[in-house]
Amino acid sequence: MKEFATKIDAYNLQWRVYKDHGDVVLRLGTLQLVGEPFYDLAFGSCLFDFAIITNKGDYRLKYPTRFYSEQLEPLVYKPEHVNAIFHKKDLVLYQYYNILRGQRYNMYSTPIDDDMGTKQLRYLSPHLTVTTKDGNPLLLIDYYLYSKLPETWTLQDIVDVLKDELEQQKKLHEQLWYDIADAYAKHKPLKIPIEYNDNRDAFYTEEINEYGIRTPKLEHVFLNAQRER
What we know:
With 229 residues, the chain is of the alpha+beta class. The protein contains five helices and 16 strands. A hairpin with a 2-residue loop joins strand 11 (128-133) and strand 12. Residues 222-229 have low confidence and may be disordered.
């Protein structure tokens, strides 16, 4: 039984959205994607961390993608204390070791809690990160952010400082939906990069018959699967 179902006009198309057994599914004809509800501190309610649903299984999208709509608000948890007030004098210099870069950084730290949006902050920008100290979350910001913040600040001040960067990220995260709208308007098949056994050339695509009916198809995936047997 569907817990939530609606139609959303977004990105020049009408999407069916429903929540069933904890999953949130976007549907457009034969195209189905499952995503996770998420509250973006800069742009509000969205879905992210997508996979395409096929009769062969679910395949994660290769590139980060977000689907924004105010109509998703009933599905999205908004942190309770995103307007909590911080004081710049309470920031403490902290040595942070970045495993991915293999380097140690001087960053400025302050304790936070999950209701302040720790998950949202993890995905916000390379200028900040969230780590754990003594079992509690710790917000770390680099010198660029530190120098731009007022003496008394909130998470919204961080968003305001990073406005240009975040808007550029949003354009990249939304590009897929505009590509889909363009393909449908021009009656062309979709071609969406997916993750499949580390195959960089795997795609979800479609075949379109003479009546305009779209049939899902996975390119290159089947060839690689045969090689692996």
